[in-house]
Predict the 3D structure of the following.
Amino acid sequence: MADNERKVTSISELGEFGLIDRLTNKIKIRNASTLKGIGDDAAIIDAKEKKVVITTDLLTEGIHFNLMYVPLKHLGYKSVVVNLSDVAAMNAVPTQITVSIAVSSKFSVEALEQIYEGMNLACEKYGVDLVGGDTTSSMTGLVISVTAIGMAREEELVYRNGAQKNDLICVTGDLGGAYMGLNLLERENRVFKDNPNVQPQLEGYNYILERQLKPEARTDMKKIFEELKVKPTAMMDISDGLSSEVMHICSDSGVGAKIYEEKVPMDNETKDLAEEMHINPIVAALNGGEDYELLFTVPIADHDKIRNHPDITVIGHIVDASEGTNLVAMGGTEIELTAQGWNSLKDEK
Amino acid sequence: MADNERKVTSISELGEFGLIDRLTNKIKIRNASTLKGIGDDAAIIDAKEKKVVITTDLLTEGIHFNLMYVPLKHLGYKSVVVNLSDVAAMNAVPTQITVSIAVSSKFSVEALEQIYEGMNLACEKYGVDLVGGDTTSSMTGLVISVTAIGMAREEELVYRNGAQKNDLICVTGDLGGAYMGLNLLERENRVFKDNPNVQPQLEGYNYILERQLKPEARTDMKKIFEELKVKPTAMMDISDGLSSEVMHICSDSGVGAKIYEEKVPMDNETKDLAEEMHINPIVAALNGGEDYELLFTVPIADHDKIRNHPDITVIGHIVDASEGTNLVAMGGTEIELTAQGWNSLKDEK
């Protein structure tokens, strides 16, 4: 956090108007649908013939992030991306976000600015407008709440409940990297605590560190689906781990699934570090979460359209509900999937 | 809080699916514009020819509420109302909300249910749909983030920047009550701490307690304006105190204002308790906040249309920017208004 402490302005020095101005003066409006952004009781969005999609996520210090490892700018970026990922999972285009932040009064204006800098960067990259929010105090930790708005024509929207028997189960990108990145950061932090003279060993793991610290939302897939002339029958983003998300789609669609361990795409860095840390790589993919890739199903008739696309991997297929949701392990054994979900509510670290 | 402790289910007992189901199974959809509510990556809203209005507020324990005084059900209700109030201030109709809650894992499922019960009650009263959200852990206090969506035709929307010289400045309802209600709760809490055998003296102050604990949003005004054939030139809700809001409208509209102490509507309970506690009642109205009434301006030509309406009081008029924003006190002295704004960021109690 040394970088955050160059210049320190207390929030009370600026006062209400000064702080709002300082945090929001770099915000640009990029969408014609944003009729009114920050500066009134509410923002105004022009939906025209489109449907409006809305999603929200709350990130709390010590649960979703640890300020020991996460630079504030990355935190701002990620808190936007996780919401855009939900919009992408509806096959909609993200257009606006609102942001609420609660901080201890010990937090400096410069620290808040870094969070906003990351948020602005995400807005720029994804062409999204920051149109409102709330900055307030917390008695203790940092809390970030982001709500994202997106738009799509009705016929473009993809729900979780449309998967049909024999559909192919696909994922974008690769899985397990964000979880292994977190394991690496936690390991190096423990080593550092034991001996502050030891330098952290992070070389060779850039990719998985970035997967953890600066994930991206697959907003590119909507266009790829259009180009491939494929419309997924069901889709969601992979935030809690592949296992939990496959179970969600199956339960909402009233079907079962079979996924194949050997097909689940994983980067070499993910596999190498998992081996080094005696973690089964498939566990990182199934239960690790935070990859923000998309999980979707397509009719088997579309196999030829997707099979050679570098961003898409077929990992299994939909079966009858009576067959359950199973992983076919390397040796051929079938293992029933279990949902981890909200680790954060189950045991507080 | 004795009532909260009748039955205590730990959040981890229910797990992800169980908790979502338990908190959301009473949620009803009331708006045809809600195409998809809870249960997918995002909610979907059909805006048709309307413009979509969006606003968000974050409430944190110890800053915005104290669980010592505030029943959880009231807290849930209020956290929805403060957002609907912002939608009403745009002259739009609130239609959907999303809710994010962060709690310590020591919080019980029953406690969370009480918050949701209050939220559902507010949704029922205001005809709003709860369409999504996030329930997660916090390391410490309770955090509630609500985002509200509303709709209006473009020509109905009222911004903060339209006030013109000579416009009348009006408020709905009465002011200062919520602040005096808070003072009463804090006083009785101090007495109780000094001597737990003393019963709190709350009788005779039902109105101001309700103003603090269970405020309402003036979503009724849109219809009243239509009936009176009046369209405000500028409007905002009174959440931070009359003084701060008058200054907002003046600064956004590039005008000044003169408001009259004798005209500011206050309930007798507000005045009585203020006198008893040696607080100048006008200070409660100017700087107290949380009344969630509407402050608006109308052309002077509309005076006859509004003068006899029981919900509307004219408290002053718009002047040239060069004249500043002033309160004309009882004796005729002019006092420059000052904005309190975010008390919460200035000094943490």
About this structure: Chain A touches chain B through 80 residues (CB under 8 Å).
